[in-house]
Amino acid sequence: PECITNIDDNAFYYCNNLPSISIPQTVTLIGSYAFYMCTKLQNVTLRYGIEQISSGAFSSCSSLETIFLPESIDYIGSSSFSSCSKLISVIIPKKVTIIQSSTFSYCTNLANVTISDNVKTIYDYAFRRCIFPSIVIPNKVTSISYYAFSYCYNLSSITMSETLQTISYNCFYY
Q1: Statement: residue 161 has pLDDT above 90
Q2: Please, what's the largest Cα pairwise distance for the chain?
Q3: In whole numbers, what is the pLDDT of the chain averaged over residues?
């Protein structure tokens, strides 16, 4: 319904038979683990107006292949898309300034990532075990935390930010 503004924590937790969902434009917040372990969820439609995706919101949605993140999003919580093992591509919206811990960790088919120019920090394990062959770290990024790109076995090209100040230990470990 168009009157919904929030999808609360655990709202669809473990709904194994949910194949798709269309989030109305009125929703501004998706709560923590709202769609956790929705293993048959393949299609998610997020509309402009959503601002926050909380921690673990789509974690372990193992059938999710694509998701379009609208430019209205300014916060993506830790582990939001972790273990979405069929996710292929993602574009981080321009309002997002931090890629939180484990946001896309264990997205083992994630082959294409575009990080917006406004990201300043990439936290630990953010892209652990992804398969993209190259990554461009935008110029505003000043810090990449430990294990952020660990076990990215296909990673063969890294374009670094000119303002990068900190690359933490084992950042690109594999």
Answers
A1: no
A2: 47
A3: 96
